[in-house]
Specification:
With 189 residues, the chain is α/β, with parallel strands linked by helices. It is 30% helix and 22% strand. Keywords: ATP-binding, Cytoplasm, Nucleotide-binding, Nucleotidyltransferase, Transferase, tRNA processing.
Amino acid sequence: MPDQNIEIQKAISVLKKGGVILYPTDTVWGIGCDATNAEAIDKIFALKKREESKSMICLVSDFKMLQQYVEEVPEVAYDILKYAAKPTTIIYDRPLRVAENIIAEDNTLAIRVARDPFCGKLIRKFKRPIVSTSANISGMPTPKNFKEISTAILEGVDYVVNLPLQKKGAKPSSIIKIGNDSTVKIIRK
């Protein structure tokens, strides 16, 4: 059985150098990098052959970290996250302290508080949000398991975390957009 702490250390050393990792998230396998490093984010856009106008999700370890990267977290967000039955990503207005190229054109950012123990620990130890985008070339189906990840992605990342995805048949998270006026809009169920 691979040692989780060793995997976390290896992943962090790659993230600190501006590298890109392939890692199991609380939903599907994700491609990740330091969310504050614009060059690392560009590597992901290039790897996924994705338009830069399409923003990506960012993972944080807890509410405290969330508050550091959003100007104002609407009260309703805490209620939604507290009662959500499955991993839920929320799109917030006016993100702070992240790379420009991860922020959407309307000055919003999709952030998920990671529920997965491995992800939470990785982010806590890295002390910065980590990008999380599905491990596929843009327009291709999202891989449901490690075997479905294409060679192009496996060879294009700097490090593949050697740990299994906790949940079988994992699905992408729900996505909800919350405006600063507390309006709630469901983007992906």
